[in-house]
Amino acid sequence: MxxxxxxxxxxEKHYLxxxxxxxxxxxxxxxxxxxxxxxxxxxxxPLLPVFSQEFSVSPAESSLSLSLSTGSLAVAIICAAAVxxxxxxxxxxxxxxxxxxxxxxxxxxxxxxxxxLVIRALQGLVLGGVPAVAMAYLAEEIDPRGLGATMGLYxxxxxxxxxxxxxxxxxxxxxxxxxxxxxxxxxxxxxxxIGFIALLPPSRNFVRRPGFDPRFHAKxxxxxxxxxxxxxxxxxxxxxxxxxxxxxxxxxxRLVAPPYGLNQTELGxxxxxxxxxxxxxxxxxxxxxxxxxxxxxxFGLALTAAGSALTLFASLPSIILGIIVLTTGFFMSHSIxxxxxxxxxxxNKGHASSIYMLAxxxxxSLIGSASGWFWAVEGWxxxxxxxxxxxxxxxxxxxxxxHFARRKA
Length: 409
What we know:
The protein is an all-alpha fold. The protein has 18 helices and no strands.
């Protein structure tokens, strides 16, 4: 009889606890999964001005190389939660990471704009097997007393991946061209996927559910939507991620144009501010475990809005400072909100995580592309006002979620 089956019958939970070898292996493996996922997903972001020029498309059209990936990933996440119930969390994440790395390498050989978009959309579908399932794995396997810290480390891995993908692509593109840049980033993602497979311990609290029962999955998803606090956490994912991606998408167009005139290497190096996101995600998780998750969430959202507002100043140091503050606040908020979903969900945590990540990537796709209209018509000030409005809604959602969570407690 397998360990999961024994756990299911006895009702015992065998968690990974701090200061054990298995805990350290799981933490490093999930860090690698976050790194690989986000480096492969966002490696095209510094290339948006290059795509616009090379393929003769508008800034909003060039953003489709990112928005199609995040949009298809959002759809795939819902399916991933159901698929992982049958084949297992670890197996699905491994297949997804390997497939996404190979598709990134294939992107480097795309002969035209439309095929490049098709490959990027497929990559998003493949990557859907990682984010929600990784969160579910952590919620199921890690001791709840240390979940905030571990979730923060995973989110830190996503921040490091997002930074590395953008920075390395910008530098490689400057010296070798965008095609070799994407090839090299894909090769790094492949190495990270192999490391993930070698390190991640098997699930011990997961019970495989063979076959596909649509009624079970529909009931699980609807059950989480009936939880009064969770829909507002899902709204935060949609609004905060959409605002964050908006600033990063169109800051590149602003900074390569006069009076700044940054080249691809200089633009890519600005993304090193993601290092602040790595620290913020881990710090936010630890603070949430110690002083309360909702106060830290509200502080993170306020910090995100302050960073967005700072980019309104014309000086380059003020813009960079604004992006640093924005990044710090966003990753602190995301670390806390994603951990709260696992904490407040009553059973079927993979389904709850999948809805959260669905909202997260739909926000990235829809808001990230729609905000291109504000950039084209009214410029940077309109982009910032739009993001501030989205973040104000996110802040109000956090207040309402806190209210319902306290009532439930």
